[in-house]
Amino acid sequence: KAGVTQTPRYLIKTRGQQVTLSCSPISGHRSVSWYQQTPGQGLQFLFEYFSETQRNKGNFPGRFSGRQFSNSRSEMNVSTLELGDSALYLCASTPGGNPAGYTFGSGTRLTVV
Amino acid sequence: AQSVTQLGSHVSVSEGALVLLRCNYSSSVPPYLFWYVQYPNQGLQLLLKYTTGATLVKGINGFEAEFKKSETSFHLTKPSAHMSDAAEYFCAVISGGYNKLIFGAGTRLAVHP
Predict the structure, then answer these.
(1) Is B98 a residue whose pLDDT tops 70?
(2) Residues 52-81, chain A: which have Cβ within 8 Å of B?
């Protein structure tokens, strides 16, 4: 069974631009969560979607947004990119009812120059 | 609020030696606890998890962890380190019914011949 797929793997953007990252969960998983990983702040929760609804949100500015489609695929968008947004963005999926079943993707490495 | 503390950002062991990575958590309700491993340029792979039941949890690659409520600890051990165990290890907690993982800062494990 295919794992969690994140595209693209690597991305370079310029300050002020916007970016969209994609995550395809494991088939049958209805919950998708996003995390940001940086050397300084570690792993931080961005948001979680379940059946196209945002259920939980971390402490990030409004420039960070996401959505989930009816097939459970999710996208996150970052507008007006800042140098500090450079990070590894990880997506995780779980069937939905049990928080103990997270599976992570390989991540998208975003570099802002 | 829940939190996770991993003692030691870097741990170095000899091949064949015991691996002990320390994790303490704070939670006002019974937690779900996890250990993840991350290899360079990869996502997070679940090593093991504690939800309910037996407090000694066995995971993949010979790792195990014991949930000690009285000590609020969930330390990760492996009897004999292998070179392939060199990676970064993250302890995480979910509690309160929220589908949000709170991660520790991570421990980088080095294994030398």
Answers:
(1) no
(2) 55-56, 58
Contact assessment for residue A90 and residue A107, using Cβ atoms and an 8 Å cutoff: yes
Give yes or no for residue B28 having a pLDDT over 70.
yes
Give strand pairing partners of A65: A77
Nearest to B102 by CA among B69, B82, B74, B81: B74
- Give me the amino acid identity at B35: W
B49: closest chain A residue by CA: A100
Question: What's the pLDDT tens digit per position in B31-54?
Answer: 899 999 999 889 999 999 998 888
| Dist CA B31 CA B10 (whole Å) | 26
Q: Give the integer Cα–Cα distance in Å for A95 and A29.
A: 4
Give contacts of A92 with chain B, Cβ < 8 Å: 44, 101
Number of other residues whose CB lies within 10 A of the CB of residue B100: 22
Nearest-Cα distance to chain A for B78, in Å, is 22
**Is B49 in contact with A4 (Cβ distance < 8 A)?**
no
Residues of chain B in contact with residue A56, where contact means CB-CB under 8 angstroms, are 98-100
Longest dimension (CA), chain B: 44
> By the 8 A CB rule, do A87 and A110 touch?
yes
